[in-house]
Specification:
single chain, 752 residues, mainly alpha, Serine Threonine Protein Phosphatase 5, Tetratricopeptide repeat, 44 helices, repeat, Ankyrin_rpt-contain_sf
Amino acid sequence: MDEQYRDTNGQTVLHCAAKHRNVLKYLINECNCDIMVTDKDGIPFLHYAVKHTNVVKYLINECNCDIMVTDKDGVPFLHYVASEGLLDVLECMVMNINDYIMDEQYRDTNGQTVLHCAVKHINVLKYLINECNCDIMVTDKDGIPFLHYVAREGLLDVLKCMVMNINGDIMDEQYRDTNGQTVLHCAVKHINVLKYLINECNCDIMVTDKDGIPFLHYVAKEGLLDVLKCMVMTINGHIMNKKYHDTNGQTVLHCAVKHMNVLKHLINECNCDIMVTDKDGVPFLHYVTSEGLLDVLKCMVMNINGHIMDKKYHDTYGRTVLHYAVEHIDVLKYFINECNCDIMTRDKYGHTLLHNVASEGLLDVLKCMVMNINGHIMDKQYRDTKGWTVLHYAVKHINVLKYLINECKCDILVTDKDGVPFLHYVASEGLLDVLKCMVMNINGHIMDKQYRDTNGRTVLHCAVKHINVLKYLINECNCDIMVTDKNGVPFLHYVASEGLLDVLKCMVMNINGHIMDKQYRDTNGQTVLHCAVKHINVLKYLINECNCDIMVTDKDGVPFLHYVASEGLLDVLECMVMNINGHIMDEQYRDTNGQTVLHCAVKHINVLKYLINECKCDIMVTDKDGVPFLHYVAREGLLDVLKCMVMNINGHIMDKQYRDTNGRTVLHCAVKHINVLKYLIKECICDIMVTDKDGVPFLHYVASEGLLDVLKCMVMNINGHIMDEQYCNTNGQTVLHCAVKHINVVKYLIKE
């Protein structure tokens, strides 16, 4: 019986004798034929005998054939017998293996057990389940239980056969497959199976899959209306109440949103509430709107009163159904035209839908809305809680702005709650394109006084940080850079005071070369130089490039140079010196009080040093009363200033040439300041006997005034007999005569 004995079909003599038990016995027992031989297609000899029970019994019982032998596709003989529905053969085989013949070791290469193979043969299944105790929850290689497989295939008879073999609650959670689906999910396409599972087996239609989605919601999402109707009778009338939210907070309505017929049934027959909210507090009505489902919306409207958009239908964000419809023009039109929705309804922040649309730049939506309110849709009553109008919200969208201004006649000078016109707001934000769009709608002089805001600022003041906007306003719109704010300060001065050099340069080309002359003083009488005093770079530009006169005076007649000196602004002074001749401090530079720059700088040592050492200022220059600056310093007791000055004149700075118009020397002027006197006498070798214009020595003057401390200071500077005749004045009086009215001085002169 070896291979040479095969016929053209590849069969051996053993295959040909499969129908005849007596011939088989002879071939096997006498001729030693191999019962495991296969034909040319790899089919074992046992498969040939499958339809002959007596032969199969012989082969299994007498010849010990393995019933799990597989064909070329890996299908065991046992599974092959089950799939063919050969109950007699199966019964014959069962006695030859252990009681649990259906456990996992008997799966075929597809992962199917004998139950899966016998699924089309009820009698075989009954035998396997009842007699062989097969587990109907055994899973295939994909983890799908046999029970679920039967349900998915819609095999109701098989299902009924199986139910009697497990407890009544066969559908509880322990019977989920690896996808988390129950037998109900698997049977969803077979109404008859579902009815049986729900009505006879008491399956819970709210059982959830692994994602927490109830079976009811799954059915709705798939649009299975017949299945839904089948299920409704098994729970109370209000099947859609809150306890039926899934883990996403969605109700059955949310799940059915894409299936009109299912929605109609849920709303009309099951009385579902279309305002039921999801976990985020968004009503189903709003959800439908946000998705732009107009047909669904129309289906729903008939179930609530005509004013479906009133305030009670705001979601947790305070938004109405209109806010959600903003991206869907057809839905908006329906709401506004058919449902009479108010486009000015506000959300919880006070933002109207109209403003929201403008801020998003939705021009088509805006056009759709405009026809539903009066022509002046932008008037004051339509401001939000910030006081902003629709123009403010549309500021980033040129096309929307053009429409609002040109078609809707919006007023670009409308003010916010702080009194700032929209035009000014645009300038302050530097929105040049927006500004250009607006200019064509008002007269050429858009910046005149009537356009000031509540702070008295013009559009120029608002645009000060944006050079490109300023250039446009000045060059194209002919704005006047000398326009004043409410305090009378010209815009030019404001720019200088802020140190905005780039802005200043931009402006200079628009006025004549002498932009700083008297006509440009502000209400305080200050010129642009005074305003720029804290900004060196601006000052340099004004002086060097614009030829500003540093001797220009304020309203009090004080030159700018003197003002700088009085403030002690050395850096500013140094910047200015290069623009006038070396003797900048001569008489032509006195102010209306007759004071020179030295007088003004008297409190600032560093400035004085610079004026004296670098600018060669004359410390003996006199004021309008003929008092030299040196005497002024002494009279004020400014010792540090005096020391600073001494190095600039010869050792005898106090001789007769230094008398003032009253004939007084520096000693006379310093008489009230002991520290100054000591310095003048000891360090500067001043002569205490110097006389005034009346021939009275300084010593006698001191005695006549009773200035004992001054006298004591002076005594150490002459010999012990200071009172002899040589010290008589022109009237022949000695110091004693002069001191006669002052007892303490007389005592000192006599005793000491």
